[in-house]
Inverse folding.
């Protein structure tokens, strides 16, 4: 199946494609390995988190990996951290949600597809009621792939934090709806919170260069295998868990 053009008007074809898309495992693992060598992240864990994560992955539980968002370079450093963590077995089986604009360049899109990228049409980028329909299709698609055993990684703040890199912004409601809809299809998702820090930043609005994101500090909170029943409660839990993980990443820098 040929990759469809990633536009809001074409969202049905887009999500039909990414629902069934499969990564090249060899290329994906090689790319994550290379990023791990290039960015050399430091990875810490809450007490019991490393074992808990390994146990959930061994049990085949799909993960919802929640990460705070600081820079346009985050997808690369997060991929590097995944290679250097217990997430390595789910590389090639994880869909990474990314804003749809980055899929416009054919060369970059090829890389994104190989890395597990899935486009998101954000309401901040469109003033159309069609965004609501696209969001529903995205949630449905995430639920289907999780029911098939794949995991989802996302930046639930929905935008880069240019206010205070030590505090998590309010989360969008998508993370809670994805978890609930996946459960409706028989999945049993696990919430994994991954805090990210690039160190002290006098101007949090300034974009970071390649040298600025080397040796980033990552911190895994204890994975949560029992999630609340309602989407809003899951979202609230996700924010609290992500803040605790971010606190760990800041302290470990």
């Amino acid at each position: 199946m040929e990759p469809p053009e990633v536009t809001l008007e074409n969202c049905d074809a887009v999500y039909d494609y990414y629902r069934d898309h499969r990564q090249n495992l060899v290329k994906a693992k090689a790319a994550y390995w290379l990023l791990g060598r290039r960015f050399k992240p430091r990875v810490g864990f809450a007490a019991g988190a490393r074992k808990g994560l390994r146990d959930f992955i061994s049990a085949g539980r799909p993960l919802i990996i929640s990460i705070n968002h600081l820079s346009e370079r985050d997808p690369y450093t997060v991929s590097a951290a995944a290679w250097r963590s217990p997430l390595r077995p789910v590389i090639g089986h994880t869909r990474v949600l990314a804003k749809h604009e980055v899929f416009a360049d054919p060369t970059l899109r090829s890389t994104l597809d190989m890395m597990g990228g899935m486009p998101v049409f954000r309401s901040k980028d469109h003033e159309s009621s069609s965004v609501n329909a696209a969001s529903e299709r995205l949630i449905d698609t995430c639920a289907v792939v999780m029911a098939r055993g794949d995991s989802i990684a996302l930046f639930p703040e929905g935008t880069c934090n240019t206010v205070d890199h030590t505090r998590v912004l309010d989360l969008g409601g998508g993370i809670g709806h994805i978890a609930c809809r996946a459960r409706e299809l028989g999945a049993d998702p696990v919430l994994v919170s991954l805090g990210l820090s690039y160190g002290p930043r006098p101007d949090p609005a300034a974009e970071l260069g390649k040298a600025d994101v080397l040796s980033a500090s990552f911190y895994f909170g204890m994975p949560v295998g029992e999630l609340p029943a309602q989407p809003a409660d899951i979202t609230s839990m996700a924010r609290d868990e992500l803040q605790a993980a971010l606190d760990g990443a800041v302290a470990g820098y």
Q: What stands out?
A: Residues 31 and 115 are 8 Å apart (CA to CA). The chain has one domain: 8-251. The radius of gyration is 17 Å.
